[in-house]
Amino acid sequence: MAELIFYTNPQSRGQIVRWMLEEVGAPYETHILDYATTLKQEPYLSLNPMGKIPAIQHRGKVITEVAAICLYLADAFPEAGLAPAVDDRANYYRWTFFTSGPIEAAFSNKAVGWEPAPDKQRMFGYGNYDLAIDTWEKAVSGKTYLAGDRFSACDLFVASQMGFMLAFNMLDPRPAFIDYVARMTDRDAYRRAKQIDEEAAAQMNGAA
Length: 208
Description:
Mean pLDDT: 95
Number of domains: 2
CATH class of the largest domain: Mainly Alpha
Shape: globular
Helix content: 40-55%
Number of helices: 8
Largest sheet: 4 strands, mixed
CATH architecture of the largest domain: Up-down Bundle
Order of helices and strands: EHEHEEHHHHHH
Number of strands: 4
Structural class: alpha+beta
Radius of gyration: 17 Å
CATH topology of the largest domain: Glutathione S-transferase Yfyf (Class Pi), Chain A, domain 2
Strand content: 5-15%
């Protein structure tokens, strides 16, 4: 068994982890799962009982949740330089988990046409959608990177989520968002990851 195994579907959020793996540069084995079959069956359910992707297995340990996978890989492969020094990780953690928490919740609720009433907003981590998105815009405005003076796993995760929302017209195309995503994705590892997933998706669709 390979030391690093990646469980994904090329038409999923696994694309974010694929990009991270290409940035890391360590060899990995890919297992493509099908939504209707292998994703909801053993042996995958023993790794992730939620039956969701992506996931990785590294040296026998399973990691799920995209943000957790990205930060784990940055620590597991420090030679890739994808995490700031330990004493400079405030913004690294802040904006990674702001994106995976408040932004994800605000976006998901809005996508299904629901938002908490004004008198209930304090019960939700994001308050309301506009507040979360405006805060996100401030986070990426006026700086090159979100955490420190170089690209990090935080930038990879945030730019991926932001880019997805922009691509599907789920986010107001504010200049700060467009500029940030364009700069963060202008990387060879991103282009390699996109090509790999596009080819895998075409192969899957052709087989179907």
